[in-house]
Structure formats: C-alpha cells, structure tokens
Amino acid sequence: MLAALSVAATWEYPRLLPDVQLNLWSRVVVGGAGWSFLTSLQVALPVAVISLVLGFLSSYRLLGSRYRHVWLWMALIPFCTAPVILSLEMQYYFIRFGLTAQRIGVVIGQLLIGIPYATVLFSLFWNADRLKQEEAARTLGCSRLQIMQHIHIPAAGGIMKLVFAQLFLFSWFEYGMTQMLGVGQVQTLPVLIFRSTQEANLALAAGACVVLILLPVIFIIFTRKIVFR
Amino acid sequence: MLEIRNIAKTFGTTPVLSNVSLQCKGGETLSVLGKSGCGKTTLLKIISGLMTPDAGTIAHNGNDLSHTPVEQRGIVYLSQEPLLFPHMTAAENISFGMRMRHRSKDEVAGATNDMLRALGLEDHGRKLPQALSGGQKQRVAFGRALLVEPKVLLLDEPFGSLDAGTREEMQQFYLHLTKTYGFAALFVTHDVKEALVTGTTFARMESGELTLFEDLDAFVNDPNGDVAKERLFWINLK
Amino acid sequence: MKTLSGITFIVGIVVPALSAFVLSAVYATGFFHAQETSLMYFTELVENTRFLKSLGYTFLLATAVVVSSTFTALKIAQLLNRRMEIPSWFLLPFAIPPVVAAFFGFHLFSGVGLLSRIAHALGLISTPVDFPALVNDPFGIGTFASHFMLCMPFFLVYFIYLRNQPLLEQLEDTARALGASQKQVWHHIARPTLLHKSTPLLLVFFVFVLGTYEIPLLLGSQSVRAVVPVIVDQIKGYNLKAIPTGYAMALAYSVIIMLVAAVLSKKMNRQHGA
What letter would DSSP give residue C1? Predict the structure, then answer.
C-alpha cells in the first residue's frame, strides 16, 4: 500500500487504487527523500557507533556489582522515557550551548537515550557466566584491561552486532526528539514523513516511508541469525 | 607455605566463616571435606582475593597477601566448571596466562606443546572448548592454571560435574600433577573418597568452622566426620 | 577499568538524566516564566483534570494494547507447531517504526482510507462520512489498532522463540509423561512459563505505549489525548504561562517512568543478574 501511495498522483474517493505515475519516484527522491536519507544516515551512524562503545563500557559497571539492580534502574529511566519528553527537559542546555537546529545537537540528544539503551541491552551480556570467566582470568594473573581486550570483547561479537542494529534502528526511526532539537532544520526521514503528511504531499510521505523501512528490512533479513542466537 | 590466620566473613547478619586458620606447604594438598553451604567456596574466594574478608590475614612464605590484588597473588582458583574461554582453542586457553605476561612466542609455543603432551591432549590443541569432553575440558583448565606457575592452587569441587569413571581418572591425573609440579593446593570436596585420594593433609569444614587433623588416622577416626559415617554405613550393610 | 566504566556510566547516563529531572523541577516552579516561584503548578495538575484524564487514558491504552497483543500472540503461538523455524517474513513488522504505523494507520482507518473504500466497493457505505470514525475518534480505535499492529508480531515472535528453547520443551515433555493432555500442558506449563519469561518485555512495551507520541499525534482522539502529546503542547504552545504546568506534567510522567523502571530492573535482574 505504501509503495502504491508513493507513486500516487491522485487517489480520489471511492477508488480502491490511486492513479499511478511511476515518474513520481524521481520527484520523491529529488523532493527530499534522497537528502533526508543521507541526513538520517549522518545521524544514525554516529549515534549507533558512539552509543555502542560507551554503552559497552558503562554496562561493564553492572558486572558483579552488589547494586546491579540500582545501576540497571538508572539506565532504564532514560531508556523508558519518551525521547520527546527528555528533549523538552534538556532543551535549555541545548539552546544555551547553541546545539539546536544542528545535526550535532540531534546526535548528542539521541546519545542521551542511545547510551542507556546500549547499557540495558549489554546488561544481558554481563551475566553470571561472564563474572566467573572474569574471576578465572583474574586468578590467572590478568589485569581488567587485558580481560576486557582478550576475553570480554571477543566474546561480545554477536551481541555487539545486535546492539548496533538496535541502536541504528532507534536513531533511524526517531521522530520526536529529532523534531524538537532539530527544530525542523534537521530533516531526517521521519521528520520528512510528518512534514509531507501535514502538507498533504501523499506521494512524498509514502515514498519517504518506503525509503525509511527499506534499510531495516535488509538489516532484519541479514541479522536474523544473530537475533535468534 | 600458605598461611591463613583467623579469617572471618559475615554476609548481612549470617556468619559464613569464623576464625578459619590453616597452613599448607609446597607439594602438599590439604583436602577440605565439607557439605554445600558450609562456607568452603567463600574461603577459597577470600584466599584467591576475589572476596575480601572481614578479619584475618593471608600470607605466602611470610609475605602478607591480604592487600595484594587478585592478579598479582599467584593463587589460581579452579572451580567445578572448567570456565574455558569459548572463543579460544584448547591450546590458546592453556597458553593464555603466559601470553598475558608477554612471554615470547617461541617460549609460549614450547611450553604449551609440553603441557598438551603432559595432559594427554596433544591431538586436541586446535579444538574449541565445545568440541572437548568434560574430562578434557577440566584437563585444559588444569593446564591453563599450571602454566602460570602458581604458588597455590585452589580447587573447588573440580571434578564435581564429571561422571564416576572420569572422576576417578581425573583424581589419579591430579596426583600425577602434584608429583610433577609440586604446588601447594587446597582441595575442597564433599566426596569422602576423593578427599582421601587427593589429600596429604586433611580438614573438615562445617558451618563456617574449619577443623584441621594431625594426620590421616585422626581424620578417618573423627567421630563427627563423614568418614566415620561412611564406614558405619558399609559395616552395617547386610 | 571499573572506574572508567563507572565514570562513563555517571557522565553518560546519570548526569544527563538527573539534570533533566532537576531542570524540569525548576521549570515547574515557574522560575523561568513567572514572577515568583511557587508549587501551585503541581497542585494545578490535580485540580485541572485534563492531565489526569489523559494519564488515565494512556494507562488504559497501554494496558489494552499489551493485554490484547499478549493474548492474541499466545493464541497464535498455541495454534502453531511447538518447534518451528521462525520465517524471515515474521520479522518484517519489526521494520515498521511508529511514524510509518501512524501514516499507514491513517490511510487505512480514516474516512477516505482503504477500509472505507473497500466498504464502499462492497456497498456497505455510500460516502466517507458513513464510515465509522476510527481516526481522531473519541475512543482512540485507530491509535489502539496501530499500536496493536506494532506490538503483536513482536510478542508472537518472542513467544515462538521461547517455546523453541530446549528447557520449555523438556518441561512440556515431563508434564505429558506425568499424564497431562496437550491442552493441560499448554494451560499449566507452556502459557505460564511464556508469560513469566516475557514479563520484562511486556513491561517495556507497556512503558513505550505510555510514552507514545507519533501515533496519537496523527490518529489520536481530539477529546482525551495521550499524555506525551499533551505535555508537548503545554510546553510548546503559545501560552508562556502554561509552560510551568507543562513541566510539572513532565515531572509527574518521569516519576511514573522511574517507578516502572524500578519494577523492570528488579525483574530483569532476577532473570539475567550476575
């Protein structure tokens, strides 16, 4: 249905199918979906990479901690909060430091959710088995840095791919915070969809929807095995 | 010589260890017989440095180790699970400690091959842990521990997850290792026969208290001990 | 390493979350927008029933979505084979974000949407007005349906995945060996185990629906609205005097999130703790 709407010149009621004009797709791409695709990529890639690294590092704090549930609770709060609310609560700082209406501002904003998100996901990795392995390596004379380098990071390969995919998708799909902190100037694909819906540009909104879900579909097909491991 | 003096540990309001003291010389294995929940794992974790005691001292050859970090103590802890690193081959697991100490590649390769031979695993060096049997995994864990030349080995029911046959085989293998490498060891088990086979000195642990025995006779004839109970069982068997 | 990890955690997570909370509290006292600070904006939350109504509505929506998705997914999982390879197309709904669900929902459920056109083609209605209001309707049917479309496939895949785990299979076999029928095994073993194991996931989805924004923005009820769009409107509206109340609402919402997160952390810790 989305694909059909993306090439819909008109869709008069009560016709079941719209009037299709295939050349509308060039307008969809030129009309913004192409640029928004690139903008989305420029936001989602740094968010996914930085959150992955910092989330892996911060989640290590949970391993063997007596207060693991408290650390987890602190990570769960921003993870569970609606991004748009978090951006409203943090907006003062973003205005103060001149970060609104800029891509970097949106990236920093999304990191405030991305890092806790990665931490929560990695908490599943830092389990009882990992603690035992760490203890075994320590009695064998390893420093914590060596354990991280030689034991934990190689063992985390699978979950890292999964967490990266999740983080990328979070940022790729994010609308509320991007709109709030980007003030409409950082036009990612979800922002474009909303804007063109409000402007009643049916073909552009539907085309942007198709572009938006295309990458995740490919992602899902290729990461299927990792997800179920 | 490993010397433990007056170690105490309480979890919340529950005392787990009270005034535990013991000594263990190089080449000796102190067998500690105790049921699950008696505090033996806590004791081993405290000696290895993985847990801090509320009171007491740990020393080796007169050097106080109480504040030495785990990785610098030279005390290796082996548990019931072999805890092999799953992404490394058997050989890589064995050489792990040496590699972390930045020994030369030739030295590591030579020592690893010697150890694989000593463990009877020369054909299994390239296998990943999941391709090894339970006994083989435990052998690799022993090899990995021995290659770092530990001052003391702490063994927490190391053969607990093996079947009876493999368990007996591993007990003999352990005796062979003690003779070859001459390390000091604390061997914790709940199995009377295993304690008798592996130990050179003996102790019993109950409710966080450790009782040391002067010799084998005293251990065997301890009226409150499991050895006496086991003997009584066999005598009364009709 | 642990220190570095602790510092990263505090700088990357605790400090931003705490500053957001403190700043909201300061805003909510009217510090930036009123002549003097006061706690009246908090009492306004209780006196002006709009916020409580929208909170109640969102709770109801989240409960309805999670409960109906759970039971539908459980029913389908029961009907499917015990051990089945999850086909790739089962995962395709995961690629649908809320913004697309909202857009899709609008063109499916609105008066000029696909369902209305099908109804017209079948001769059930003659004009778009005859089609029952499913978008911007007082009961939020379109909002509910869009959330259901997002949640249910996820739950279904998770239940099938859990059912494929060897432990559950062994438990089911044991129950059968003890004389339980297929139906009894499902009711007494499989279903309770699936529900128990998926509690953290269900809570996560509950809290996500609680924070829903894009879907109610496009499809939501005009009378009672979901809580997040209400807070956003209150803060981003033209009335500067309304801003402190908006932040008081945001603060109340954050407290609810903290409580749910506390329950979630305990559940997750019990299942995966070290």
Answer: -
For residue B206, what is the DSSP state?
E
Decide yes or no: CATH 1.10.3720.10 for domain C37-272.
Answer: yes
List, for residues C92-138, the tens digit of each pLDDT value: 888 888 888 888 888 888 888 889 999 988 988 888 888 887 788 88
Q: Please tell me the distance in Å from C27's CA to the nearest CA on chain A.
A: 9
Rounded Cα distance, A58 and A42, in Å: 24
State the virtual CA torsion across A153, A159, A160, A162 in degrees, nearest 10. 170
For C88, which DSSP code?
G
Amino acid in the structure at residue A28: V
Six token digits for residue A84: 């748009």
User: Cα C202 to the chain's mean position, in Å?
Assistant: 9
| Neighboring chains of B (3 or more beta-carbon pairs < 8 A) | A
Contact present, C199 and C270 (Cβ < 8 Å): no
pLDDT at B96 over 60: yes
Chain A residues inside the 8 Å CB shell of B97? 140-142
Q: What is the pTM of this model?
A: 0.83
Best to test chain B binding among A131, A139, A149 (most B CBs inside 10 Å): A139
Backbone angles phi, psi at A101, to 5 degrees: 60, 20
Q: Which CATH architecture has domain B2-236?
A: 3-Layer(aba) Sandwich (3.40)
Please indicate whether, in this complex, the C-beta atoms of B85 and A133 are within 8 angstroms of each other: yes
**Structure tokens given for A46:** 């740094």
Radius of gyration of chain C from Cα atoms? 23
Q: B70, A154: Cβ pair inside 8 Å? A: no
Contacts of C62 (CB under 8 A, 6+ apart): C206, C207, C209, C210
From chain C residues 72-131, the ones with a CB under 8 A of any chain A CB are 86, 88, 91-92, 94-100, 103-104, 106-108, 112, 114, 116-118, 120-121, 128
> CA-CA distances (angstroms) from residue B116 to A95, A225, B82, B111?
64, 35, 16, 9
**pLDDT in the model for residue C170:** 82
- pLDDT tens digits, one per residue of B108-152: 999 999 999 988 898 999 999 999 998 899 889 989 988 888 889
Residues within 8 A of A (CB atoms), B 115-144 only: 144
Which residue is closest to C100 within chain A, CA to CA? A209
Distance in angstroms (rounded) separating the CA atoms of residues A21 and A26: 10
In whole angstroms, what separates CA B141 from the centre of its chain?
Answer: 11
Which CATH number characterizes residue A112's domain? Answer: 1.10.3720.10
Domain map of chain C by residue range? 37-272
**C13 chain-A contacts, CB cut-off 8 A:** 58, 74-75, 78, 115-116, 119
Q: B42, B68, B70: which to substitute to probe chain A, counting the most A Cβ within 10 Å?
A: B70
How many other CB atoms sit within 10 Å of the CB of residue B38? 22
Tally of domains within chain A: 1
CB contact set of B132 (below 8 Å; sequence gap of 6+): B84, B90, B124, B140
Prior bond to A14 cis, omega within 30? yes
Give chain C positions within 8 Å (CB) of A69: 265-266, 269, 273
CB contact under 8 A, C264 and A76: yes
Give CA–CA dist C40/B189, Å, rounded.
67
Closest C-alpha to A211, from A42, A8, A25, A79? A25
pLDDT surpasses 60 at A216:
yes
Within 10 angstroms of residue A32's Cβ, the number of other Cβ atoms is 21
Q: State how far residue B75 is from chain A, nearest Cα, in angstroms.
A: 6
Cα(C72)–Cα(C151) distance, rounded to whole angstroms? 11
Structural domain harbouring A59:
2-228
